Description:
- The protein is mainly β.
- Helices cover 0% and strands 50% of the residues.
- The chain is built from no helices and eleven strands.
- Strands 2, 4, 5, 6, 9, 10 and 11 form a seven-stranded mixed beta sheet that branches. It has a four-stranded antiparallel beta sheet with strand order 1-3-8-7, with no helix packed on it.
- It starts with a strand and ends with a strand.
Amino acid sequence: QEQLEESGGGVVQAGESLRLSCAASGTFCSLYVMGWYRQFPGKQRELVASITSRGFTNYPDSVKGRFTISRDNAKKSVWLQMNSLKPEDTGVYYCNCGRYWGQGTQVTVSS
């Protein structure tokens, strides 16, 4: 059983930055793709960024150039650096690894 714990959410103004962190309790996630998803009210979760165990990354166009995902397998952690935040980035952000999900952390961007 793997547990993922996120931190780093908060309230910022448009144009500011936030850094989300996710720590895994075990070693399972070190071998798998890890990702960050976000969910808006009434919507399904959508991928924000993913990174393979070797460091290959993937971003949707909506965040490309603004968000950066990174990981450290030895520390069993993954991070999401979010720059130039926009009000439309507001939502609950979840860390993911396979079938495991974190509890979510709220990100609110005010205009």
